[in-house]
Design a protein that fits this description.
By secondary structure, the chain is an alpha+beta fold. It has 10 helices and 19 strands. The mean pLDDT is 96.
């Protein structure tokens, strides 16, 4: 019985066959992981119409045996480009037509030159996004891992809220949140956690510093956990003022409405740009369109930003199994920013929030700090 990785490689084999290729060399470490289950780096994968081989070196011999028991591996004596290129030439012997796909999005110019020299009688055909196309639609096992990542992230956020104090700095809260995610099962964070107080929350990717919670009436937190390679991504805006301003409540309600109505429209067959338009229209109609300058969301999986994207130009149709973020925001320079983000999987009839235990209404986000 084929495992999930063999099924993925067979799908890729069908794609390259349609392009008239006898094989493809996978140089993206993330794509190697997706296609084999190998979680190390500095290894390539050769997929041909006759079989599949991981190209690696002595450092990963045992790891490959453990993680990829059904895979053929060729262990080079030294981790050099020349040896990998010569090994690839040996593995391709007798295969026709002599057209090999290479990943244009990950292979460097020097790598291409090295392989072109070794495979002087082969045509190297640049490909783009073939494996990424497969990765857009997650299977049940991938979605379950993303749920577990979301649980670790949510439990860590609960701890942050419960212990929030006025004297805490952004960097202290970041470190606390990162540590808690690992305590609850995450292997690492999805990205550099963002914690921004008050006016600094207008920076979409603010870098945590020594600003203290009491210095603003809001606290923006953007964080994510990784579980067995798969990622979560959430944002919440905590209200730290005992008497929040009418302006804050108004802006929060606008962003929340944009988030909820866009998410409610997610279902198979809908264009990505149309989901973006729903949220963007709500924010624009409220008079804050120019303060929402990024796309509504992005695909999520083994990487924090994957295709497809919720933005103004992506016309791709949603399919069951795609996992997308929905993260509208309003950012006012000198005042602050509000963003609300959750992760949604497209189902056969609509979508499901795979981080459902994180509340996001205004009252739930009000936390008194002393």
């Amino acid at each position: 019985m084929k495992d999930q990785f063999q099924i993925r490689r067979d799908k890729l084999r069908n794609l390259i066959k349609k392009d008239g290729l006898s094989g493809i060399l996978i140089t993206s470490f993330v794509n190697v992981t997706y296609l084999t289950g190998f979680t190390g780096d500095d290894s390539f994968l050769l997929v041909t119409k006759e079989g599949d081989t991981i190209l690696s070196d002595f450092r990963y011999t045992e790891q490959i045996e453990q993680e990829c028991p059904n895979m053929t591996a060729y262990i080079c004596t030294l981790p050099t480009l020349e040896l990998k290129a010569q090994t690839t030439k040996t593995l391709l012997k007798g295969i026709t037509p002599k057209r090999l796909g290479v990943e244009g999005d990950s292979m460097t110019l020097s790598q291409r030159d090295g392989f072109a020299t070794a495979l002087d009688d082969w045509e190297l055909a640049t490909t783009s996004g073939l494996v990424e196309r497969l990765r857009m639609v997650k299977d049940k096992s991938e979605i379950e891992l993303m749920r577990k990542a979301g649980v670790a992230a949510a439990r860590a956020f609960d701890c942050l809220k419960a212990g929030l104090r006025a004297e805490q700095t952004e960097i202290e809260l970041k470190n606390q949140l990162d540590h808690a995610m690992k305590e609850f099962g995450a292997e690492r964070t999805s990205f550099n956690t963002i914690v921004a107080v008050g006016p600094w929350a207008s920076l979409c990717h603010a870098v945590p510093g020594d600003r203290r919670v009491a210095e603003g009436e809001l606290l923006l937190v953007d964080w994510g956990a990784v579980y067995m390679g798969y990622m979560s991504d959430n944002t919440r805006t905590i209200i730290t003022s005992r008497k929040p301003s009418n302006k804050l409540r108004k802006l929060y309600d606008i962003v929340l409405k944009a988030h909820m109505e866009a998410a409610a429209a997610i279902k198979p067959g809908v264009r990505c740009c149309d989901i973006d338009a729903i949220a963007r229209g709500i924010i624009t109609d409220a008079g804050y369109g120019k303060y929402f300058g990024h796309g509504l969301g992005h695909g999520l999986g083994l990487e924090i930003h994957e295709n497809p994207r919720f933005n103004t130009i992506t016309e791709m149709l949603l399919e069951p199994g795609m996992v997308m973020t929905v993260e509208p925001g309003i950012y006012l320079p000198g005042w602050g920013g509000i963003r609300i983000e959750d992760d949604f999987v497209v189902t056969k009839t609509g979508c499901e929030n795979i981080t459902p235990r994180l509340p996001k209404d205004f009252e739930a986000m009000m936390i008194q700090v002393d």
